[in-house]
Amino acid sequence: MQVSSTNADRAAIGLSLVCVIHCLLTPVAIAMIPALGATFLEDETFHYAVLFLVLPTSLFALTLGCRKHRGFDILVIGLSGLLVLFLVPILGEEVTGELGEKILTVAGATIIAYAHVRNFTLCRQRDCHAADESRQDN
User: Fold this and answer.
1) pLDDT per residue over 20-53, tens digit each?
2) What's the burial of 60, exposed, middle or buried (CB within 10 Å: 0-12/13-18/19+)?
3) How far lies 5's CA from each of 67, 72, 73, in Å?
4) Model confidence over 72-117: pLDDT tens digits?
5) Of 39, 57, 65, 98, which sits with the fewest C-beta atoms within 10 Å of its C-beta?
6) What would the mean pLDDT of 9-19 be, rounded to a whole number?
7) pTM (2 decimals)?
8) 3-state DSSP of the chain
């Protein structure tokens, strides 16, 4: 089974949304349910795990799509979003502050999701998906 650009874009968009939801809802959940403060939601391991999933998925989907439709500006946008996401743990909360950390994470995830939506749309307009389907049939 061959993975298509469409499925990889969808997965990457979903992972970007996980970042945004985690960043925005964790403080609310911790305030409402104090026991969550000691769970994995506040642990840095969760952030690294999501980054570990976002990086290969995004790079794969964006490079696959950009090779087909030649919209390499989309790859630059996606790489910018990944850079922002990776700056968060590098700079740390000590430099950015808690609010800055959340703003940077949401901004990076939004940039990545935007790049994947553009990648998906351009592939659909240029009929790149038909090429994926014809290869899977062979």
Assistant:
1) 666 666 566 555 555 555 555 556 777 787 788 8
2) middle
3) 10, 15, 17
4) 899 999 999 999 988 988 888 889 888 898 889 889 988 988 888 8
5) 98
6) 75
7) 0.68
8) CCCCHHHHHHHHHHHHHHHHHHHHHHHHHHHHCHHHHHCCCCCHHHHHHHHHHHHHHHHHHHHHHHHHHCCHHHHHHHHHHHHHHHHHHHHHHHHHHHHHHHHHHHHHHHHHHHHHHHHHHHHHHCCHHHHHHHHHHC
Which two structure tokens, joined as six digits, stand for 52?
A: 């570990």
